[in-house]
Structures are given as structure tokens and as C-alpha cells.
Amino acid sequence: MKPVIAEPASAIDPREIGERLRSVRTERNLTIQELATKAGLSVGNISQIERGISNPSIKTLQRLRAALGVNLWEFLDRGETRAVGEPPFVRRKFERPTIIMSRNGLTKELLSPQADQGLRFMLIKMPPASESTDVLIGRGLKGGYVMRGRVLLRVGDNLADLEEGDSFQFASDVPHQVSNRSDSEATLLWIMSVLDTHI
Known about the structure:
Number of domains: 2
Distance between the termini: 22 Å
CATH topology of the largest domain: Jelly Rolls
Largest sheet: 7 strands, mixed
CATH superfamily of the largest domain: Jelly Rolls
Shape: globular
């Protein structure tokens, strides 16, 4: 499965995102004008995305998925690589939807077999000097485990220096950010239990 680039980049075919957007919009019986109004975007912008002319930023994707009432992973995961007869509770390694935050290299891979459920977990790889951006905040819990490396986790006014083997958990409606200030890549197992399945 091809990774999705969070900032416009030529490494992904924008036609895939455009096809998915058009499909979800028509499933919801929305015109481009109605979606533009709900998402706070221009009709031209949505039209260009649907035609594969424009590769949207992660912020634009967030606006679109919120207006369509789906979570970001559900929006990006087309499920096309699922093998026939594969149980719905399994996601193979080659099936993982991936978002690459091109500005700082942070990569998120969805591990959850079903992107539309209230429990989601992913693998986050953080190169040196990277940090999380466009963090989703909503009702529920977030937690994780540092599999490799060292990270700084800020939750509200609290800061924790975490290293390999450390774990954490916090309410997901508290502003938070994770960053890698070391000179080595860090890998996290990130878990979300969300009451609002659209985040």
C-alpha cells in the first residue's frame, strides 16, 4: 500500500485520494458545493482534489474527513489490498495505510484491522528532530509504549522524558505533543481508545 504524504509531494499519486474523496462524498449524497461549505474549503479546491490535480495537505484532509463524518484512517484506508477470505480482525503488514509527515519525516502506520472502530493503534517512527503536528484531540484515551529510542511527551503542562521500555496513558482531550530530541530514530506503539470515532 502506498504511503500518503501529509504535505503536497510527488511521491504519491493524488488521483487515489481524489477517487476516495469522490466516492465518500457521493456515498453521503453531497454535492461539491455542500462539501465545500461544510469543510470550509473552496469548490475549486475540492474539484481539483477529486480530479487528482491537487495533492491535499493533512490539514485539508482533516477538514474533509470531519465534514464527511469519517476518521482520517477510514478516509485513507480503501481496503483494496485485503486478501479474499482474510478475517476482518487481521491486518497484514503490507496492508497498513501510512501517513508520512514530509516536513519532519515522522511516519504513522495504522495497525488496527478496522479503521472505523473506537480502538485504534499505530506504529509511529520518529527520526531525529521530528515532532508530532496536527494532533487530534477528542474524547477518549491515548497511550503507548516506547519500543526504541527516546522521546519527550508533553501532556498539558507536564513534560516526560521517555526511553525504551517506558509506557504512558492520558486523556486524549488534553493538548499533547511528542518529539524526538535525540540523534537516533524513535519508534512508538501508539494506542487510541476514542469515544468520538471520527477523530
